[in-house]
From TrEMBL:
The keyword tRNA-binding does not apply. It comes from Nicator chloris. This is COX15 protein. It is a multi-pass membrane protein. The lineage of its organism: Eukaryota, Metazoa, Chordata, Craniata, Vertebrata. The gene is Cox15. InterPro entries: COX15/CtaA_fam, HemeA_Synthase_type2. It holds the Pfam family COX15-CtaA. Its main location: membrane. The chain crosses the membrane at residues 26-43, 55-74, 94-118, 139-162, 198-216. It is found in: Membrane.
Length: 239
């Protein structure tokens, strides 16, 4: 890898990257212990209900899986590829899987914690509320997909291909959008297509969040729910 990439790197520059990677690994292990040790203590004290035990086991298993997935991802960047002329990098597929599992772990942890800390609102199941809930779930899926597409952008260095917005260079739709064959490969391996898709998904996500906010304004909602929707819109705009 050193002969193919960063062959002029100095020792202090290497140490900076090494310590970043080392800190990430150590922080991941601290997170794992923060899950497993209290879970074992609470379990032994009998403070966990039967459903909560299942949640705790699933979360602890996901923490361990996340660590293994991280190792599997890094391993792909160290494998020799004699038939490839590309610079050494981790697999964008494994990077997306690592990020995706981290998002699932974070979301599941937050959902479990808030379910225990905050009482559930008993709202009448109106048609408008049902539509709002379905739309919120769809928006969540779209945001998740957008984040995963960002992992492909990072894995392929696709952000370096075009640095203008809203056009890509001088065109709205680049010429090399479907340069790879078969066509499906472009979505995951063509840097131009990956950046284009990420832009479209990002715009779609902000639009969906804005529409969700506007729709929520027409429904009588508890203060906590309204704050959550407003915060979602604010974070989407900042992002």
């Amino acid at each position: 890898s050193f002969n193919s990439l960063n062959h002029d790197m100095t020792l202090p520059e290497f140490k900076f990257i090494w310590y970043m990677e080392y800190s990430h690994r150590m922080w991941g292990r601290v997170v794992g212990l923060a899950y497993i040790l209290p879970a074992a203590y609470f379990w032994r004290r009998g403070w966990l209900s039967r459903p909560l035990k299942g949640c705790v086991l699933a979360l602890c298993g996901l923490v361990c899986f996340q660590g293994l997935l991280g190792w599997y991802m890094v391993k792909s960047g160290l494998e020799e590829k004699p038939d490839s002329y590309d610079i050494p990098r981790v697999s964008q597929y494994r990077l997306a899987a690592h990020l995706g599992s981290a998002l699932v772990l974070y979301s599941a942890s937050l959902w479990t914690g808030l379910s225990l800390l905050l009482p559930q609102h008993k709202l009448p199941e109106t048609k408008q509320l049902l539509r709002l809930r379905q739309y919120a779930h769809g928006t969540t899926a779209l945001i998740f997909l957008t984040a995963l597409s960002g992992a492909f952008v990072a894995g392929l260095d696709a952000g370096l291909v075009y640095n203008s917005f809203p056009k890509m260079g001088e065109r709205w739709i680049p010429d090399d959008l479907l340069a790879f064959s078969p066509m499906l490969r472009n979505i995951f391996e063509n840097p131009t297509t990956v950046q284009f898709d990420h832009r479209i998904l990002g715009i779609a996500s902000v639009t969906a969040v804005t529409a969700l906010y506007l729709f929520s304004r027409k429904i009588p909602l508890p203060r906590r729910t309204r704050m959550a929707v407003t915060s979602l819109l604010a974070v989407a705009c900042v992002q």
